[in-house]
Amino acid sequence: MKAFLLAAGKGSRISKNIPNIPKCTLDVGGKPLIRKTVEMLLENGIDVTVIVGYRYREIIRVLEGCPVHIVHNPFYDVTNSIGSLWMAENLGLFSEEDTIIANGDVFWSQEILDFMKRKVPEGDVYMLGDSNRVLDGDYFFGTENGYLKRYGKELTVEERDCEYVGIAYVSAAFIPVFLKRLNEMIDEQCHGKWWEDAIYSLSDVHPIPVKDIAGMFWAEVDFIEDYRRILDYVREKTGIETNGSITTFDHK
Description:
Elements: E1 2-7, H1 12-15, H2 33-43, E2 47-52, H3 56-62, E3 69-72, H4 81-90, E4 99-103, E5 106-108, H5 110-118, E6 125-130, E7 140-144, E8 147-152, E9 162-170, H6 175-187, H7 197-200, E10 210-212, E11 218-220, H8 224-238
Parallel strand pairs: 1-2, 1-4, 2-3, 6-10
Antiparallel strand pairs: 4-9, 5-11, 6-9, 7-8, 7-9
Helix pairs in contact: 4-6
Protein backbone atom coordinates (compact mmCIF):
# COMPACT_ATOMS: atom_id res chain seq x y z
CA MET A 1 0.00 0.00 0.00
CA LYS A 2 1.09 3.56 -0.72
CA ALA A 3 0.22 6.88 0.90
CA PHE A 4 0.55 10.43 -0.39
CA LEU A 5 0.46 13.32 2.07
CA LEU A 6 -0.24 16.79 0.67
CA ALA A 7 1.73 19.36 2.67
CA ALA A 8 2.65 22.11 0.21
CA GLY A 9 0.15 24.81 1.18
CA LYS A 10 0.68 27.77 3.47
CA GLY A 11 -2.47 27.47 5.57
CA SER A 12 -3.47 31.12 5.50
CA ARG A 13 -6.54 30.77 7.74
CA ILE A 14 -4.59 29.65 10.80
CA SER A 15 -1.40 31.58 10.01
CA LYS A 16 -2.42 34.63 12.05
CA ASN A 17 -2.52 32.46 15.18
CA ILE A 18 0.72 30.51 14.80
CA PRO A 19 4.36 31.33 14.04
CA ASN A 20 5.43 31.56 10.40
CA ILE A 21 5.77 27.78 9.97
CA PRO A 22 4.01 25.02 8.02
CA LYS A 23 0.98 24.10 10.09
CA CYS A 24 1.69 20.39 9.63
CA THR A 25 4.81 20.86 11.78
CA LEU A 26 2.86 21.97 14.84
CA ASP A 27 3.62 19.96 17.96
CA VAL A 28 0.93 17.44 18.88
CA GLY A 29 2.10 15.99 22.17
CA GLY A 30 5.86 16.04 21.72
CA LYS A 31 5.95 15.23 18.00
CA PRO A 32 5.29 17.25 14.83
CA LEU A 33 1.89 16.44 13.38
CA ILE A 34 3.19 15.25 10.02
CA ARG A 35 5.91 13.11 11.59
CA LYS A 36 3.29 11.40 13.74
CA THR A 37 1.28 10.56 10.62
CA VAL A 38 4.32 9.41 8.66
CA GLU A 39 5.55 7.16 11.47
CA MET A 40 2.10 5.60 11.84
CA LEU A 41 1.97 4.82 8.11
CA LEU A 42 5.51 3.43 8.04
CA GLU A 43 4.83 1.22 11.06
CA ASN A 44 1.95 -0.28 9.08
CA GLY A 45 4.21 -1.15 6.14
CA ILE A 46 2.93 1.67 3.92
CA ASP A 47 5.23 3.43 1.44
CA VAL A 48 4.95 7.20 2.03
CA THR A 49 5.38 10.20 -0.24
CA VAL A 50 5.19 13.71 1.22
CA ILE A 51 4.60 16.61 -1.15
CA VAL A 52 5.98 19.88 0.17
CA GLY A 53 6.13 23.53 -0.90
CA TYR A 54 5.76 26.34 1.63
CA ARG A 55 8.88 26.44 3.84
CA TYR A 56 9.59 22.92 2.68
CA ARG A 57 12.97 22.66 4.39
CA GLU A 58 11.26 22.77 7.79
CA ILE A 59 9.02 19.83 6.90
CA ILE A 60 12.01 17.89 5.60
CA ARG A 61 13.86 18.65 8.83
CA VAL A 62 11.11 17.35 11.11
CA LEU A 63 10.94 14.19 8.97
CA GLU A 64 14.68 13.55 9.24
CA GLY A 65 15.37 9.83 9.54
CA CYS A 66 12.00 8.79 8.09
CA PRO A 67 12.39 6.75 4.88
CA VAL A 68 9.92 8.72 2.77
CA HIS A 69 9.82 10.11 -0.74
CA ILE A 70 9.85 13.90 -0.85
CA VAL A 71 8.33 15.82 -3.77
CA HIS A 72 8.88 19.57 -3.87
CA ASN A 73 6.27 21.81 -5.49
CA PRO A 74 8.03 25.17 -5.93
CA PHE A 75 4.85 26.64 -7.43
CA TYR A 76 2.69 26.03 -4.36
CA ASP A 77 1.59 29.66 -4.31
CA VAL A 78 0.15 29.53 -7.84
CA THR A 79 -1.15 25.97 -7.97
CA ASN A 80 -3.55 24.20 -5.68
CA SER A 81 -3.11 20.66 -4.39
CA ILE A 82 -4.02 19.07 -7.73
CA GLY A 83 -0.76 20.47 -9.09
CA SER A 84 1.17 19.06 -6.15
CA LEU A 85 -0.25 15.57 -6.61
CA TRP A 86 0.36 15.73 -10.36
CA MET A 87 4.06 16.36 -9.65
CA ALA A 88 4.22 13.06 -7.77
CA GLU A 89 2.46 11.36 -10.70
CA ASN A 90 4.84 13.00 -13.18
CA LEU A 91 7.80 11.60 -11.22
CA GLY A 92 6.38 8.09 -11.51
CA LEU A 93 5.68 7.65 -7.79
CA PHE A 94 2.18 6.28 -8.36
CA SER A 95 1.74 2.61 -9.22
CA GLU A 96 -1.17 0.22 -9.37
CA GLU A 97 -1.26 -0.36 -5.62
CA ASP A 98 -3.92 0.43 -3.04
CA THR A 99 -3.31 4.07 -2.16
CA ILE A 100 -4.29 6.48 0.61
CA ILE A 101 -4.27 10.18 -0.24
CA ALA A 102 -4.53 12.57 2.68
CA ASN A 103 -4.06 16.22 3.48
CA GLY A 104 -0.92 16.61 5.56
CA ASP A 105 -2.54 18.82 8.19
CA VAL A 106 -5.02 16.13 9.27
CA PHE A 107 -4.54 14.56 12.69
CA TRP A 108 -5.80 10.97 12.49
CA SER A 109 -5.25 7.84 14.51
CA GLN A 110 -4.40 4.18 14.09
CA GLU A 111 -8.11 3.50 14.61
CA ILE A 112 -8.94 5.31 11.39
CA LEU A 113 -6.09 3.62 9.51
CA ASP A 114 -7.31 0.22 10.72
CA PHE A 115 -10.79 1.12 9.49
CA MET A 116 -9.37 1.92 6.07
CA LYS A 117 -7.28 -1.23 5.90
CA ARG A 118 -10.21 -3.53 6.58
CA LYS A 119 -12.94 -1.62 4.73
CA VAL A 120 -13.59 -3.13 1.31
CA PRO A 121 -14.88 -0.29 -0.86
CA GLU A 122 -17.68 -0.49 -3.37
CA GLY A 123 -16.44 0.90 -6.65
CA ASP A 124 -12.73 0.79 -5.77
CA VAL A 125 -12.54 4.28 -4.29
CA TYR A 126 -14.02 6.02 -1.27
CA MET A 127 -13.71 9.15 0.80
CA LEU A 128 -14.01 9.54 4.56
CA GLY A 129 -16.76 11.61 6.14
CA ASP A 130 -17.91 12.28 9.69
CA SER A 131 -21.66 12.38 10.25
CA ASN A 132 -21.13 13.84 13.73
CA ARG A 133 -19.79 17.02 12.11
CA VAL A 134 -22.74 18.47 10.23
CA LEU A 135 -23.54 21.79 11.89
CA ASP A 136 -19.96 22.98 12.25
CA GLY A 137 -17.15 22.25 9.85
CA ASP A 138 -15.22 23.39 6.81
CA TYR A 139 -16.15 21.24 3.79
CA PHE A 140 -19.25 19.10 3.60
CA PHE A 141 -20.66 16.13 1.72
CA GLY A 142 -24.22 15.29 0.91
CA THR A 143 -24.77 11.60 0.26
CA GLU A 144 -27.53 9.33 -0.98
CA ASN A 145 -27.45 5.66 -0.01
CA GLY A 146 -23.83 6.13 1.08
CA TYR A 147 -22.65 7.66 -2.21
CA LEU A 148 -21.35 11.17 -2.84
CA LYS A 149 -23.95 13.44 -4.45
CA ARG A 150 -23.13 16.94 -3.21
CA TYR A 151 -19.96 18.57 -1.95
CA GLY A 152 -18.73 22.02 -1.00
CA LYS A 153 -18.18 24.63 1.67
CA GLU A 154 -21.49 26.34 0.99
CA LEU A 155 -23.87 23.38 1.28
CA THR A 156 -26.86 24.24 3.44
CA VAL A 157 -27.54 22.18 6.56
CA GLU A 158 -30.34 20.45 4.66
CA GLU A 159 -27.98 19.53 1.79
CA ARG A 160 -25.18 18.05 3.91
CA ASP A 161 -24.94 14.99 6.12
CA CYS A 162 -21.24 14.81 7.01
CA GLU A 163 -18.00 16.77 7.02
CA TYR A 164 -15.22 15.65 4.69
CA VAL A 165 -12.25 14.34 6.69
CA GLY A 166 -9.50 15.09 4.17
CA ILE A 167 -8.61 11.46 3.41
CA ALA A 168 -9.45 9.18 0.48
CA TYR A 169 -8.73 5.59 -0.50
CA VAL A 170 -8.01 4.67 -4.12
CA SER A 171 -7.68 0.96 -4.90
CA ALA A 172 -5.09 -0.47 -7.27
CA ALA A 173 -7.82 -1.11 -9.83
CA PHE A 174 -9.00 2.51 -9.72
CA ILE A 175 -5.55 4.15 -9.88
CA PRO A 176 -5.48 4.30 -13.73
CA VAL A 177 -8.94 5.90 -13.79
CA PHE A 178 -7.95 8.44 -11.17
CA LEU A 179 -4.62 9.32 -12.80
CA LYS A 180 -6.24 9.66 -16.22
CA ARG A 181 -8.66 12.22 -14.82
CA LEU A 182 -5.88 13.97 -12.87
CA ASN A 183 -3.85 14.38 -16.06
CA GLU A 184 -6.88 15.52 -18.05
CA MET A 185 -7.53 18.27 -15.52
CA ILE A 186 -3.91 19.40 -15.62
CA ASP A 187 -4.05 19.43 -19.43
CA GLU A 188 -7.19 21.59 -19.10
CA GLN A 189 -5.17 24.04 -16.96
CA CYS A 190 -7.22 23.30 -13.83
CA HIS A 191 -4.25 24.19 -11.62
CA GLY A 192 -6.45 25.99 -9.13
CA LYS A 193 -8.41 22.88 -8.18
CA TRP A 194 -7.97 20.63 -5.16
CA TRP A 195 -6.69 17.08 -5.72
CA GLU A 196 -10.10 15.85 -4.55
CA ASP A 197 -11.70 17.52 -7.58
CA ALA A 198 -10.30 14.72 -9.74
CA ILE A 199 -12.48 12.32 -7.72
CA TYR A 200 -15.49 14.63 -7.46
CA SER A 201 -15.52 15.09 -11.23
CA LEU A 202 -15.92 11.33 -11.68
CA SER A 203 -18.90 11.00 -9.34
CA ASP A 204 -21.50 11.38 -12.09
CA VAL A 205 -20.19 8.36 -14.00
CA HIS A 206 -18.50 6.36 -11.24
CA PRO A 207 -20.27 6.10 -7.85
CA ILE A 208 -18.02 7.40 -5.06
CA PRO A 209 -18.80 5.88 -1.64
CA VAL A 210 -18.39 8.00 1.48
CA LYS A 211 -17.42 5.96 4.56
CA ASP A 212 -18.56 7.34 7.90
CA ILE A 213 -16.01 7.45 10.73
CA ALA A 214 -18.30 9.09 13.26
CA GLY A 215 -16.98 8.51 16.77
CA MET A 216 -13.33 8.29 15.70
CA PHE A 217 -11.22 11.34 16.53
CA TRP A 218 -9.71 13.42 13.77
CA ALA A 219 -9.08 17.10 13.11
CA GLU A 220 -7.83 19.07 10.13
CA VAL A 221 -5.81 22.06 11.29
CA ASP A 222 -7.55 24.91 9.48
CA PHE A 223 -8.31 27.08 12.48
CA ILE A 224 -6.81 27.54 15.93
CA GLU A 225 -9.85 25.81 17.45
CA ASP A 226 -8.97 22.66 15.47
CA TYR A 227 -5.47 22.66 16.90
CA ARG A 228 -6.72 23.13 20.44
CA ARG A 229 -9.09 20.18 19.99
CA ILE A 230 -6.08 18.06 19.04
CA LEU A 231 -4.13 19.21 22.09
CA ASP A 232 -7.08 18.39 24.36
CA TYR A 233 -7.39 14.93 22.78
CA VAL A 234 -3.67 14.20 23.13
CA ARG A 235 -3.71 15.31 26.77
CA GLU A 236 -6.70 13.06 27.49
CA LYS A 237 -5.18 10.03 25.75
CA THR A 238 -1.54 10.34 26.76
CA GLY A 239 -1.46 12.53 29.84
CA ILE A 240 0.94 14.92 28.10
CA GLU A 241 0.09 18.34 29.49
CA THR A 242 -0.32 20.95 26.78
CA ASN A 243 -2.37 23.56 28.66
CA GLY A 244 -4.17 24.24 25.38
CA SER A 245 -1.28 26.39 24.22
CA ILE A 246 0.43 26.57 20.85
CA THR A 247 3.62 24.56 20.97
CA THR A 248 6.16 24.45 18.16
CA PHE A 249 9.59 23.08 17.50
CA ASP A 250 12.74 25.12 16.99
CA HIS A 251 12.50 26.10 13.32
CA LYS A 252 15.67 28.15 13.19
